[in-house]
Amino acid sequence: MALQVLAVDDSRTIREMLTSCLTSAGCEVVVAQDGVEGLERLSGAQPDVVITDINMPRMNGFEFISAVRSGEQNRHVPILVLTTESADDLKHRARSAGATGWIVKPFDELKLISAIRRVAT
Amino acid sequence: MADRNEIRDTFFLECEELLEALDDGLREIDGLISTENQDPETVNAVFRAVHSIKGGAGAFGLEDLVEFAHGFETALDFLRSGKLVANAEMLRVFYRANDRLLDLVGAARDGEILDPAESSDVLAALETMTAEITKDMPSDTPISFEPMSLDFDFEAVVTADAPGDHTNYRIRLTPKTALYIHGNDPAHVIRALRDLGQVRVAIDPTTIPSFKDCTAGQTHITWDMNFETEEPEHVLFEVFDFVESDCVLQIEPVDAAPDAIQLASSAQDLEKEPPAEPVNPDDSAAVSLSLVPPAAKPASSVAAPKRATVRVDLERVDRLINVVGELVINQAMLAQCAENAGITSRDVFATGLEEFKQLSREIQESVMAIRAQPVKSLFQRMARIVREASASTGKSVRLVTEGEATEVDKTVVEKLADPLTHMVRNAVDHGLELTVPRQATGKPETGTVTLSAAHRSGRVIIEISDDGQGIDRDKVRQIAFEKDLIPEGAELTDSEIDNLLFLPGFSTADQVSNLSGRGVGMDVVKSAIHTLGGRVSISSVPGQGSTFTISLPLTLAVLEGMVVDVAGETMVIPLSAILETLRPGHDAVHTLGTGDQVVSIRGTIVPIVDLAAAFGLRSAETYDAARVLLLVETEGNQICALVVDRIFDQRQVVIKGLEDNYGHVAGVVAATILGDGQIALIVDPDTVFENLQPIQIAPERLYASEG
Amino acid sequence: MHLKGDKMVIELSGPQHIQNKEFVAFRTAEQDFCVDIMTIREIRSWTRITSLPHAPAFVLGVINLRGSVVPIVDFSARLGLPALEHEARNVIIIAVINHRIVGLLVESVSDIIGVDPETIQATPDVASDTTRNFVAGIITIGDRLVRQIDLENFIPDTDSRM
Description:
Chain A is α/β, with parallel strands linked by helices. Chain A has a single domain, classed as Response regulator (Rossmann fold, 3-Layer(aba) Sandwich). Chain A is built from five helices and five strands, in the order E-H-E-H-E-H-E-H-E-H. Chain A has a five-stranded parallel beta sheet with strand order 2-1-3-4-5, sandwiched between helices. In chain A, helix 2 (35-42) runs parallel beside helix 3 (61-70). Residues 139-163, 258-305, 509-519 and 693-707 of chain B have low confidence and may be disordered. Chain C has one domain (20-153): CATH 2.40.50.180. Chain C is 6% helix and 44% strand. In chain C, the strands form two sheets. Chain C has a six-stranded mixed beta sheet with strand order 1-4-7-8-6-5. Chain C has a five-stranded mixed beta sheet with strand order 9-2-3-11-10.
């Protein structure tokens, strides 16, 4: 069965890139443009992996991850954080919030898939 | 991967929005400087805009853009974190960076390369801003998260790294509970290792406590692995990237063959192993951020959720508009057929036709609305022009915008950019005084240029006004005379003098400044607006400032017009130009000297223009009371009476350009197709009038309101 | 082939002979002319023309061609020959010149001729300026002499008014 991925990013460009990459790798992709929408998408769904940006309006990535981890349904879902550069600061904050791993932007298809492979069951 | 070009298009489209948000945000921050109390969400939005541009640019390898955005973002981050406090000087740099970012995005989109000098200058300015802060900061930013429990033996591993060589590692991994909380799993690590080489795994049974000592939600298993790979070391470390802070990890290269290492138990089936251990939800020690349930978290900004949009190729929209235009013409043809066939309005067929007409109109309006765009982006571009003009003239200028949400046809917005740029530059360059004379007259030191847009009676009115010195009419007159534009001693009203500015070859600048003196005069501005079916007028009060008013049609596709008969030719006169229709008695019409006629309307003398003669359809005839006069107002607030033979109808007509296959025709704005399939020309009262009368006897405005 | 009648519209198909270049031959002012078939979009019967003010004498006006406003040029007048007497049997050749659609009013369309480009003769030097400007070459078919017109030069200024 195809891996189901929820991609949360406020940038339409990145959302389209993620969708394009992941779809061509055979994943099913659902997108959301911020944390609030991400949580909406998660309610009633159980994706295999969640990918989220950090800097987003309304609810940022840290808040989003914390909310997912404190919920019931998807608290164990692997969450990958998109960071622009390998900023350790961000990685660790994301980790503290409950992120599983990260993807450093700019990403290519291989990088993305390998990151997902490393967390998806 | 799907179409990369499409995503690239999305990126640039998104950049436009982000740049708009950036500009908005900067202006908002600018407005709050004096209060020293910035809205964090605004600052965040500004930061995010630049950050997102950087992110997308990185994806497309636009290095210049990434580098610049990074520098800009860094400075904005300081503002966001409160390490910097916004001030006027900082905002100037930010605006400059904003402008540069806009240029870089444009250049990236068009595949151009910009001179890097400006980027370096701006980056240097941004750096200067942050350098003060950074030097006082400890080099290690304190980070508030759990300490890393890495147990690498770096000394040991650095040595073994020859490509192609098989290296054996002994890996011991003891997960902490957080590892599972974070959605990781040793199985993932093992699987990743298996992708890189040979791995054998065993659980160290000595680390497992007896059942009674097990705690729910705690992890007790330690994994021993033997790993053989050709991959370089850093690839191996990458595998542990995600888990290293959530486990105790030992990696050491071993010389011995894998077999030599005694594993405590045999290798296990990796796919089914290990089961995720139960985690107590209250055991949230590893989560340092406070956990707020989503429902309790109010949206931090009041921004309304974005309405769903669909992106459509403009060509498709235009095709639709064209077809709907045909539909409207077709409907008119049908209506005419019905009329010719003697069908009365009581007939069911006529009722149906009337409904069809309403529906066609509705479809047309809805389709036009697709092309409508707020003038905001246009106004934002003007903000930049004002900044540049202000910098180069040394005048302190504030731009006030009103009615940014007013929507106009996309083409109008695009084509208005050049004329508006020129007028805004003019307002700063010529309109506003220098600081000293301003102070002398008791005006605020900072001059104000106001840009406003509004819908008024089916048209869009855009005003550019300044609170400067107003038009120096004596000087304008003098120049016009020197340039042979008016005869000596010509008696001109104030409004006529003001309108001299629109004559070709007029420039009031004492010396051609590098701003306005770009080879364009107000005549070019006027004709540019004219081709959009618009008009521009000017009003000025000495010492108080000038206002340029542009009146534009909402759409370039349809026009409300009066269908008339001109010597057997059917023509359309735009309703927006018509003040009144009248059929005066003979005693109101007077002949002046050589046969020019005027009509006296409520005490004012108005020249009569025979449209048929103006278009060469017949030689000028004296006014015949059987004909009708259309009182029209031209751009310069001048009024004249156009003679037509008959008025047929008043209706909305679809505009068909003559330019595509032919060219511009004096006195004609465009053409339309009538119900019978024939083409009718749409008259341009302004140019008809101009061609006949270079300088007219100008009555003051007769009426305050437009017809 | 002569076109007569009110509603006759003939859509022309593409070239049928590979080596030969095809031309649409027509007659006006008692002379034979032809133009490259690739520049011709269709041939229409006479229709009422809306005149344009301030236009050169050879521009008769504009017609509605399925929603487009298309200018009509009197072919003879453009060449400096006597203008055509407007009659219902005249035809309009719709051509595309430099991305613009233009109608040429001519007396009648004769036929489509296939010509080996090698056999087209150059316009003799004796010809007047007007002739040399428009007549790109001469094709002889039996005793018929057909002037090949280059439409590129036919419409003077491509940017503004004619």
